[in-house]
Amino acid sequence: MSELVVFKANELAISRYDLTEHETKLILCCVALLNPTIENPTRKERTVSFTYNQYAQMMNISRENAYGVLAKATRELMTRTVEIRNPLVKGFEIFQWTNYAKFSSEKLELVFSE
């Protein structure tokens, strides 16, 4: 999983969002696990699931530290919004990164917003 690649759309690259280092890493990790070819993904297709061990390996941290980092980053991420401006219509869109998270004893399941 350490060979995951993420490309940012131009709209996202120039959008306004403020994330901590761990929130950014979590977003990039999750986005790399999503299928970018799906145009209107269902909830299931917007859901990412991985174990704390997998995340620890990807981030080169201990499993114990991975759970704490993920829990904090996920809580904070669920309060964050993304603002994408469209200069052609002088408008913008605002949405949350994620809208559901489920922690079990072994893994995190995270659902991205539509």
What can you see in these coordinates?
The protein has 114 residues and is an alpha+beta fold. Helix content is 35%, strand content 25%. It is built from four helices and five strands, in the order ααβααββββ. A hairpin with a 3-residue loop joins strand 4 (98-103) and strand 5. Helix 3 (52-59) crosses helix 4 (63-77). The protein is globular and about 45 Å long. Belongs to the initiator RepB protein family. GO terms for molecular function: DNA-directed DNA polymerase activity.
Tell me the overall shape. Answer: globular
If helices are DSSP runs of H or I spanning 4 or more residues, what is the number of helices? 4
Helical percentage: 25-40%
What structural class do you assign from the helix and strand content? alpha+beta
Spell out the helices and strands N to C: HHEHHEEEE
Number of domains: 1
Q: What is the number of strand segments?
A: 5
GO molecular function: DNA-directed DNA polymerase activity
Protein name: Replication initiation protein
GO biological process, one term: DNA replication initiation
Family: Belongs to the initiator RepB protein family.
